[in-house]
TrEMBL record:
The chain crosses the membrane at residues 55-82, 94-116, 128-146, 167-189, 242-261. Keywords: Cell membrane, Membrane, Transmembrane, Transmembrane helix, Transport. Residues 59-260 form the ABC transmembrane type-1 domain. Belongs to the binding-protein-dependent transport system permease family. It comes from Paenibacillus silvestris. PANTHER family: ABC TRANSPORTER PERMEASE PROTEIN MG189-RELATED-RELATED, POLYGALACTURONAN_RHAMNOGALACTURONAN TRANSPORT SYSTEM PERMEASE PROTEIN YTCP. This is ABC transporter permease subunit. One of its GO terms (biological process) is transmembrane transport. CDD domains: TM_PBP2. GO terms for cellular component: plasma membrane. It is found in: Cell membrane.
Amino acid sequence: MVFIIGVAITCLVPFLYMIALSLSSNNAIISQKVSLWPVEFTLETYKTILSDVSMIYTLGYTIVLTIFYTIFCMFLTICAAYPLTKKRLKGRSFVLTVLVITMYFSGGLIPSYILVKNLDLMNTMWSLILPGAMSVFNMIILKTFFASLPESLEESASIDGCNELGILLRIVLPLSMPSIATLSLFYAVDRWNGFQDALFYITDKNLYPMQLKLYQIITANQQLDTQQGEGSVGAFIVPESLKAASVMFATVPILVVYPKLQKYFVEGVMTGAIKG
């Protein structure tokens, strides 16, 4: 219990500090008066972020991108995991071995960039979807969960005339909702927090995901450091406050979704990792 409380405090304190920074005045931050509670409460940093009319568009675009990415990734993960649970599948061990190898070895950053460029995926949504379309780790978790389901259920459905697709849609998937919800959350968080791939593949501002958009805002405000040194601090927002508000702006949507899936989280991970 003490360990759990310690971990909770370790995770909560930095979060509270970021909230306090984002809601504190410039003078309080510069004077290092901010700890876990806002000092000289202000919403100027959030007004700065939301004053950019393109921010709302970026938020909506990122939400759509994340939803589509999650659905597409789960579709591929299910299509890979379910057949690999069947012992009658020829070449099953070979396919699984090849997939596992990709968990430890990859072509690297430069070959990945060249591949995306040669496929004409630069400045498209697909450049943020296809390169990471399926996690082998997630696939193995889902495969293990599928394998843990009683074979008698599938045999009964097969006797009643249900084909493989029907068994998957009517029996396997409904029983696998804890794992599916958990892995969907993994994919959604991964895409929502994605930054590096967008930095490499996207130059069109209309296709910036949220993390890259916030990065551009913070970069544009780095000049405030120079203005601080000239003594004109009061009229500006210091980058620390802007960074904190940006983190909160990008974190809140995931925090809203997480409680809805949290009840599946532990059950899905533990079942997919242990049973089999």
